[in-house]
Amino acid sequence: MSVAETRAVILNEARNLWIERPSITEDTGLHRDLCGTLCPLGLAFMSISENIASVQARIEAAARLAGRSAADVALLGVTKTHSPERIREAHAGGLRLFGENRVQEFAAKASALAGLAGAEWHMIGHLQTNKAAKAVELFSAVDSVDSLKLAEKLDAAARALGKKLPVLIEINVGGEAAKSGVAPDSGELEELLLAVPRFEALEFRGLMTVPPFTDDPEDARPYFRKLREVRDAVAARKLPAIRMNVLSMGMSHDFEIAIEEGSTCVRVGTAIFGERAKANRREPQNSKQSEDRRI
User: Is 62 inside a domain boundary?
Assistant: First the structure.
C-alpha cells in the first residue's frame, strides 16, 4: 500500500471513529497538515478533552490499519510548560500518563497536582545525574536512562526510598550528537545491559527513542523500525532482569507511523495541549535539551 493510500485509509478510519463518538461531530472538521497526518481544523478552539478524544481516534485508526489492538498502545501526554490547571483538565478528560522533561519544572507544580487518581508521572527528558535523586522522589518512572552512571544513581536513590522504579533505556537511533541516548549496537549499551541484574531497585521495561525531526512523518519510519529491531535483538538474548515490553516512540506528527512499526507508547503534547509556551528555565542549558521535539 502506498503512503497516500495508507493516509487515506487512516483518514476514513478516524472520521468513522469520530462520528461514532457523541462528543466529537463533523462540525469540528478535519484536514491534513503538511506532514499528511490528521489534525482537527479547530485544535486551538477545542477543549483538551476533545483533543484527547481525537488523538485516541487516530490511535485506534492507526492500530486497526496495522492489524493491532489500540489497547496495546498507551497515550502519554507531554505536559512540559503547561500549567497544573491544564494538566488537571487532561486528567478529567481521561488521560492518566503524563511526561515531563525537566525535574525542576515538575517539582514546582507537583504539589498542585497531588491527588490525581491513577496519574503516573514519567520523566522523559535528558536527566542529569545530579538530579537523579530528586527525579526518583518525584516521578513514577524514568523513560530516558542513557548511561550506566545514570542507572547507578537512580538505583541508589530508589534503594534509599525503598522504591521500585520502572525505567526505559533511551536509544539514539539517529546518531545525533545533540541528543542523548546510547547508540544501537554500541559497547555502552552492552555494558548497561550486562549491569542490569545488580540494579535491584530498577525495573528495565523497554526502550525509548527520539528520531531526527523531519516535516514528513514517513521519514521517521526507518528509525522506529530500527528501535523495534534493537528491542527484538535484546529480547531474544533473554538477559536476566530485563523485559522488553515497552517501545516508547512516536509524537504528535508521526505517531501513526510509530504505531505501524510497533510502538506501545506514544508521547503527545501539541495535539492535546496546543503549542507550548516558553518556559522560564531555571535549569542550566545543555546540548541535550534540543530534544524538545519529543512531543
Answer: no
**What DSSP assignment string belongs to the chain?**
--HHHHHHHHHHHHHHHHHHSTT--GGG-EEE-TTS-EEETTGGGS-HHHHHHHHHHHHHHHHHHTT--GGGSEEEEE-TT--HHHHHHHHHTT--EEEES-HHHHHHHTGGGTT-TT-EEEE-S---GGGHHHHHHH-SEEEEE-SHHHHHHHHHHHHHHT--EEEEEEB-TT--TTS-SBPTT-HHHHHHHHHGGG-TTEEEEEEE--PPP-SSGGGGHHHHHHHHHHHHHHHHHT-TTEEEEEEE---TTTHHHHHHTT-SEEEESHHHH-SPPPP---SPP-GGGGGGGG-
Q: Which residues of the chain fall short of a pLDDT of 50? A: 15, 18-44, 279-294
pLDDT at 170: 98
pLDDT tens-digit series, residues 97-128: 999 999 999 999 999 999 999 999 999 999 99
Rounded Cα gap, residues 136 and 160, in angstroms: 10
Q: Assess if residue 59 is contained within a domain.
A: no
Domain interval for residue 219: 68-294
Q: Are strands 141-145 and 202-208 parallel, antiparallel or unpaired?
A: unpaired
Q: What is the per-residue pLDDT for 122?
A: 98
Q: pTM of the prediction?
A: 0.83
- Per-residue pLDDT tens for 144-157? 999 999 999 999 99
* 85: CATH: 3.20.20.10
Residue 11 is predicted with a pLDDT of: 53
Q: Is residue 127 part of a domain?
A: yes
Position 121 in a domain = yes
CB atoms within 10 A of CB 97: 18
Question: Can you read off the three cell numbers belonging to residue 87?
Answer: 494538566
What's the domain count of the chain?
A: 1
* pLDDT of 174: 96
